[in-house]
Amino acid sequence: MNARIRFAISVIILGLLMTGPFVITALLIWAGAKAPERAMLVQLIAPHLSLGAMMTTFGFVLGLLVIRYLFRQYVQGLLKMAECLRLMLTANRDFRVLPEGPPEVRQLAEATNDLAQQRDGLMDDVDIQIAAAKASVEEEKNRLAALMSELAQAVVVCNLDGRILLYNSRARLQFRALAQGSTTGTGGALIGLGRSIFSILERNQIDHALEVVHQRLQKGAGAAIANFITTARGGQLLRVQMVPVLSIADDSPENDISGYVLTVENITRSLEQESRRDQVLQSLTDGSRGSLANIRVAVGNLMDYPDMEAAVRERFVGIVSDEVVRMSQRLDQTMNEFADSLKTRWPLEDVLGIDIIAAAQRRIEEQLGLPSKTEEIDDALWLRAESFSLVFSICGLAFRLLEHYQIKELRFRLQPFGKLAYLDIIWAGHAMSSETFYTWETEPMQVGSEHSPLSLRDVIDRHGGEVWYQRDKAAHCAFFRLVLPVAIPETLAAAEASDESQLRPEYYDFDLFDFRDQSIDLDRPLADLSYTVFDTETTGLEPAAGDEIIQIGAVRIVNSRMLRQENFNELVDPERLLRPEGIRIHGITDDMVRGQPSIDAVLPAFHDFCNDTVLVAHNAAFDMRFLQLKEERTGIVFSQPVLDTLLLSAVLHANQDSHQLEKIAERLGISIESRHNALGDALATSEVFLKMLPLLEQMGISTLRQALEASQKTYFARVKY
């Protein structure tokens, strides 16, 4: 029974108590009076009956107003203060009660704020001591996460149920590249904390590898490692190595496995290259066998019959000549066709071109004392290169220029040209002859006292590139132009890691070692569930009238922790023009959504992203209505439970004036970075939801079923779209 119902009942009872004695007295007098006396009473009272009734009514209304005022000032004010106190105790330490209302209530609010201030001082001291105790542990965790993030191999750590509890950047990029179908290009991901590794790798092969590891541990093998090759769902071949994570608990049996570490390597390209090299050898072998046989026969006849006729001799010599020419042509054709495959014996990697130039500049200035600067640099250009040899080559050219021509400065220029990149090394000064450049190109390289057995031509050839010298008379300068391959699309995804380096220790959670079942059970505690917090931006506020989704943003919550980097953020082409009033709110224009994926492509990807999680949104009825209206068109149904932070706020803070996202965040001490942006709103909503969980627990709402039932009892649950 809420406060307003109690107030109404109290008013009725009070009214009865106020008027009851008078009514009873009048009835007793009337019952004891005789007929003449009753007539006299009627004559006395009748003229004043309307005035008495009016005065009675006025007094009753005045009493109600006084009681209502007292209720709002004292009862409702104290209830609101109680909600604020719970906020201070749990979600927002910095929240303070606003002193308002009667003097007594204001004094209570001020005393409460003073106590909160004292409590904060004590908690700060405790926090400092706890932080000092945890610092070393957290440092070790962050070191491990940073180390894993920087490894060149894809590394994934799983518990025995196959739930991912750690992965590095290389694994994130590699598995994203393996994504097929709806996930490709729409922000979906195959990998994430708490997700199952079996969505990527075959369960049977993992189980078999675990069995092999168990057997080797039981036999006391020094290295209990299992290796296997598997096929990803996109058809790529993966080489996987499994190493067990042994339990260190005192009560666990020896060699008890609590999880495993997987190192994954995509060997599809290397196998393709080996296959092409085999084709080269096969082509040369098969094509040359017949020619060599013909040459052997012709030479044998020439040697066995030195006195043969001139015409016959000339015919045999012609056979030898023709077969030699044919073999030469076949060799040239094979080399041209398979040149790239033959050059792949050098390990090349994807590297930012600007990093190559920066490394060369640093070495040139430190070792040679030669100033350098850059011009026209495409800082987003990725090269396929072996960085050490390439930097040494650039420094070798700089050393020769300084030694022979005493140049004063070097300049670098880097620009794309289709699938190639032009790296220019520019200087002002003397011209160079073609003979000198040929000598520099073919001789072993040198930088000061350092020597290399390789020549510039060796390095360029092994990169599958080219180099030349060019004079720019108009600019009074000359330059060497190195033509190098640009990173191909499959490996270009590594560029995404550049903006994630500052957040690299995020994707690990060692508590997930004991995190088993993730199925959505209504009677499971809220803290044990995984969530997808999402938001949409739309063309308008009327989904049934034809408004469309133009952006979906979402972020995952696993183990009561928001995973900022495991997010979904996709613009959607609504296939209609946007409204000007909407553009002013969300800032998304027609040009931004034109050519983006349609809702038919985005919804399946979002469904994959939020699979097996509880959906969370603010004013979820609005967003879910848009998704429901697309079920018939896309065949995508979001059937999981949905929690609404608007309704949960009404459950937690029934006496607060507003339940808008900004107001809730302000009460909970959360700053919203980006409003009316789908991903920004999803991040803010997830922070609000995480702050609400302990408040719900205090109210006795600890399971998903209880949260859903409490939400449906609020007034806002009646709103329909």
TrEMBL record:
Question: Per its UniProt entry, what is the enzyme's top EC class, as one word?
Answer: transferase
Describe the reaction catalysed, as an equation: DNA(n) + a 2'-deoxyribonucleoside 5'-triphosphate = DNA(n+1) + diphosphate
Going by the entry's taxonomy, the superkingdom of the source organism is recorded as: Bacteria
- Looking at the record, the residues that make up the Exonuclease domain are 530-698
Q: Which UniProt keywords apply?
A: Coiled coil, Membrane, Transmembrane, Transmembrane helix
Q: SMART domains in the record, alphabetically?
A: EXOIII (SM00479)
Transmembrane regions:
7-31, 51-71
Is Cell cycle among this UniProt entry's keywords? no
Q: What is its EC number?
A: 2.7.7.7
> InterPro entries, from UniProt?
DnaQ (IPR006054), Ribonucl_H (IPR013520), RNaseH-like_sf (IPR012337), RNaseH_sf (IPR036397)
Would the keyword Cell inner membrane turn up in this protein's UniProt record? no
The cross-references to PANTHER family, in alphabetical order and at most eight, read: DNA POLYMERASE III SUBUNIT EPSILON
Report what the protein is called.
Answer: DNA-directed DNA polymerase
What organism, scientifically named, is this protein from?
Candidatus Accumulibacter phosphatis
